[in-house]
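STRUCTURE REQUEST FORM
Protein name: Beta-1,3-glucosyltransferase-like
Source organism: Sinocyclocheilus anshuiensis
Requested output: structure tokens
Priority: standard
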Amino acid sequence: MNRSREPWLAESLVHELEYVFFSVFVVDLREVVFVIQSQRNSFHVQQAENLRKDLLLQAQALQEVSNIYLFHTFIFVFHDLLTLYLFGKNSSWIMFLEEDTRVKLHKLHEVLKKFDRRKEWFLGKPLHDEESTIIHHYAFSENPAAFEYPDFSAGWALSISLVNSLTSKIEEEPLKSDFTIDLKHEVALYIWEDGKGPRLTGVPELCTFPEHKPRAQYCATTVSSHSPVCGQPVKSDNIFVAVKTCKKFHSDRVPVVKKTWAKRASLLEYYSDYADPSIPTIDLGVPNTERGHCGKTFAILRRFLSSHVLKTDWLLIVDDDTLISLPRLQALLSCYDSSELVCLGERYGYGLGQGGYSYITGGGGMVFSREAVVQLLASGCKCYSNDAPDDMVLGMCLNALRVPVTHSPLFHQARPEDYAKEFLAHQTPISFHKHWNIDPVAVFNKWLLNDKHTEGLQKSTKEEL
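Status: completed
Returned output:
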């Protein structure tokens, strides 16, 4: 061999390896499909549109083209991965964003270049449970921290290779779902498939810091707001509060309501199966049921529209073991138009893979605009029994009326202990539910007492982590 050619051969080999490496890992932003998880309410449509415009402006500045789709504009649930595959079949990545996620496209580009686009990747900011929880059906009870799932606020990504595999799986065996409670956890479980699929790969550049914080300069994604405020808070005398209770809880749960959040309500009534003037409670003539409470809830809806109560734009229905911050709710409602059909709270789903419906889960609090209540009752929708699940029946009614339910992650069906600490750390929560194995007054004081929409609560929460 002519040794004088060895340096040239070595250099040529290096160039060849570099070509192979970069042909795999370099990602053009045109190869990234963005799906903004938008909602059909006008406030959320505008939020999503603002994010879309920001992405387009960044792409234009980088002389790139971005493929951006809004979740609410096409019929789609996560299980319909074929839809995503068709949108992104000529791309390498599908990136999911929430409406308040902010993206630095150039940094995201650098992040995605690190991953072989030919392989099956599931990327995101990892969350984990510290103890087994009811909202995750007590999964991984022996070691809850062993399983990680994405914080949707930071954005999350699937390689098209993974989407293709998931699509093939669904075509072979259509997904049969029952309840959808925490989609981010259920998505991760579905992709993992008992170890047959990939686990979530944590990406430190996918962040949930406020976008103006110094630490956010290293992030590809940030969060624009931990608690949206759109103007002057709705006045307390424009919210009618209905508390569902029963005689057996008059002596333990009702005192907690009065000691914590009820003092901030201008218009509040307690509805029970027994009229107790010392509270006072109102007997709606509906017998108490151990579960469901549909009859009682529909009686509340009718009373809200009657002359028995002062006319307000908003109705809040809560359980007697719900803990809620009314000032924070008043601030949040500044973002919504009460003349629209608004049904707001924590959204759950039933049978979404088979044409089911979404509903607002009752324990975290259900908020209705007056117009929504008018339309619900005018539709003739009613309970099939007094003990039917009220929130699910309402979901069926709204689905029949084609009225969207609006999700806010600031409402919580369970206790703070049931959510990942990192998830709560970037929130200013509005509600929690259940008194089980907690001191409800202490929980309220820690999580919900602070009325100001400042970073004080967020900062103190993060320091505790």
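Reviewer notes: The first strand starts at residue 32 and ends at 36. The CA atoms of residues 415 and 436 lie 8 Å apart.
Form closed.
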